[in-house]
Amino acid sequence: HLPPDLLAAVTKGAEPYPIPPGKKYQYGTAGFRMKAAGISNAGLDHVIYTVGLIAAARSKKRNATIGVMITASHNPADDNGVKLVDPMGDMLEQSWEGLATTLANTPNDKLAKAYEELVNDTLVDEIRQLHERPAKVVFARDTRASGPYLITALKAALDAVKVEYTDYGLLTTPQLHYIVRCVNTLNSPYAFGEPTEKGYYEKMATAFKTVMHGRAIQGPLTVDCANGVGAPKLKELIKYLPSGKEGGIDIKVVNDDVVRPEALNLDCGADYVKTKQRSPPSSAAQPGDRCCSLDGDADRVVYYYTDESKTFHLLDGDRIATLGAVFLADMTRVAGIDQKLKIGIVQTAYANGAATEYVEKVLKLPVTITPTGVKHLHHAAARYDIGVYFEANGHGTVLFSDNAIKVIKEAVPKSPGQKHALESLRACIDLINQAVGDAISDLLFAEVVLAHKSWTPENWRNTYIDLPNRLVAVAVHDRSIFKATDAERRLESPKGAQEDIDRCCQMYVKGRAFARASGTEDVVRVYAEAHSKTEAEKLASQVAEVIKKYGSA
Ligand code: G16
């Protein structure tokens, strides 16, 4: 049994954070997310309190520091949420998502008992003293107005169970993942870096300078920061980077208004650009200018430009993946180590059919398809020596296996070309945030590759031509009735819905569509592609009608 005073503290600490009547919580694609407007009565505070307890138990279990990030990322400013970060900076292990859901749905009067059971059950195989094992949690938040209030709920839980914690204030989600990994690998052979924000900037800037050696980036990059935490953090990073004149990069930061929290993700940001397939209306970019957009917590990035005829062209996560894979495959070939390393790409059903075909047929690299959610892609990518994973929405990174790192670090160059390739690969290992998809790290990586290849955005786009596609969000009575299978490419329920979708697809050349319940918003998402824009749009609206029909109460 846990000490009675600790259990009493859990009950007392929870008092200000009851579950609103009728509220049900579910751990989704990236943690818990919901409306946080009206703040204290929205019920997210209760979830955050229970997440504090979960983080404590998880930290004891793993004997390591656990991270908690308060953010709702791409969601509207009124929403908020929470993601848990495991010791290596990856997402919470899936078997614990159920535990988190159960605890979140536990009313205050049963919380202390539930926490005790959780600790007992999860530490069942361990020695008794583990109850006393110190737990450590680090946390941060994005710029949402509800953040500071939710942090008080988190601290209340951590104080109740006597957990040591460090509040990192405002960070991007990937910065917190970086810090968690650094803390847990400090002084080990796998040391990831200095566990501070400064350490993050220095690691990235040093790697960037190395890999940029002898290359030049053409023209400035405009970065739309979605009026989120990415803006102040990117501005900070810029101080560590050489400018264009110094052989580095000129970055123009736009949509950096973090003073008005309601501006977050509003008519700007990666989700807006990807979904609407247009530049933010505020954009002052000229034809040919290289632009990219981050999301609210800077874990996603998509590129775009307009051409001379003002036509908008999106270079999304699929493109960043292929760009990165081409570069890494080239570099391993030049370095003479390609035979020792298996490179692969991980995508989801949202990947454009043309991107998948390009990877398999032109790059001749294997593709793995997983359900939505970086937690799924990350694990699949870890099965390759160099695993490049990106969701089409711009969320992704590259993972280097221990074997790949060893081969790259130990290879002895036989020519100046090999030396340069090996140095570039070594720097990429540091430039790319392997803990998790990181918009800031990803954009530097993309810039480096474009510079190495001397490619304009147009050259990049010409590698393959996307099939026209359309994404729509459909509001339904209860999205939980839509259950997907086959990496979310088919619906297994409600009965008959998939057959209707199949019938729609058959009417179009290269028609492909699917529908799945979002795990971050209260909608069903529909994706459709076809050989022309009009047909992709028609297919999307027909499938949306199917969803509305089956989803009406
Ligand atoms: C989160 C996840 C992503 C996912 C996205 C949308 O992104 O981390 O993996 O693609 O939600 O998920 P869904 O379609 O289930 O709503 P973010 O950037 O919001 O954290």
UniProtKB/TrEMBL annotation:
All residue ranges annotated as the Alpha-D-phosphohexomutase C-terminal domain in the record: 496-545
* All copies of domain Alpha-D-phosphohexomutase alpha/beta/alpha, residue ranges: 56-95, 127-184
Where along this sequence does the record place binding of substrate? E391, A392, N393, R516, A517, S518, G519, T520, R525
The record describes the protein's role as: Catalyzes the conversion of GlcNAc-6-P into GlcNAc-1-P during the synthesis of uridine diphosphate/UDP-GlcNAc, which is a biosynthetic precursor of chitin and also supplies the amino sugars for N-linked oligosaccharides of glycoproteins.
Molecular function (GO) terms for this protein are: magnesium ion binding; phosphoacetylglucosamine mutase activity
Protein's name in the database: Phosphoacetylglucosamine mutase
- Relay the cofactor remark from the entry: Binds 1 Mg(2+) ion per subunit.
Q: Which family does it belong to?
A: Belongs to the phosphohexose mutase family.
Give the species this sequence originates from: Capronia epimyces CBS 606.96
Q: Where is the Phosphoacetylglucosamine mutase AMG1 domain?
A: 196-302, 316-455
Q: Where does Mg(2+) bind?
A: S73, D295, D297, D299
Active site: residue positions:
S73
Q: Per the entry, which co-factors are needed?
A: Mg(2+)
* Reaction(s) catalysed by this chain's protein: N-acetyl-alpha-D-glucosamine 1-phosphate = N-acetyl-D-glucosamine 6-phosphate
Matching InterPro entries: A-D-PHexomutase_a/b/a-I, A-D-PHexomutase_a/b/a-I/II/III, A-D-PHexomutase_C, A-D-PHexomutase_C_sf, A-D-PHexomutase_CS, AMG1_II, AMG1_III, PAGM
Enzyme class name: isomerase
